[in-house]
Amino acid sequence: MSEHETYDRLIALLDEQGAQYRVIEHAPEGATELVSALRGNTLAQAAKCIVVMVKVGKKVTRYVLAVVPGDRRVDLNAVKALLEGTYVSFASRDIAEQLAGSVSGTVLPFSFAERLELVVDPGLLEHDEIFFNAARLDRSLALATKDYVRIAAPRTEPIAGGPAE
Fold first, then answer.
1. What is the pLDDT of residue 114?
2. How far is 130 from 42, CA to CA, in rounded Å?
3. CA distance 93 to 141
4. Phi-psi region of 84 (alpha: psi -120 to 50; beta: other; left: phi over 0)
5. Whole-model pTM?
6. How far apart are the first and last CA of the chain?
7. Do the Cβ atoms of 134 and 47 come closer than 8 Å?
8. pLDDT tens digit string along 56-65?
9. Contact between residue 17 and residue 110 where contact means Cβ atoms under 8 Å apart
10. Fewer CB atoms < 10 Å away: N or C end of the chain?
């Protein structure tokens, strides 16, 4: 799936579900801190989306789309413990982009891939709106948090670690 197909699929889903959102066009940027400044949101409202690989034993590999507030980092050990894994790491860029349907820096806090389990830190959901790049470096969405939870139906678990570096 190309990034524009992923963007179109997201917009179609949000429209179909009657979500409250707005599109924010900006200079191409994928870094959470920099794009948040362009959008005018706090880092805590930004959905930082990281694809994590968890090995469960020797034969099973699972992938998690870990979504944390933009001012925090993903606690890999928390994700590993959540899935009762034996090994955890960030997924390779190729696998992450394939599963996410978009390039690094534009990963959505939604999973359209069956193999990609969505887990969101509750800290992100404390705000009325969340902000994220919409599968494109030049376009973001501000989405009502209640609509995000209703539509994405994420597993909510404490997976955020300390401050982002």
1. 95
2. 10
3. 23
4. left
5. 0.95
6. 31
7. no
8. 999 999 999 9
9. no
10. C
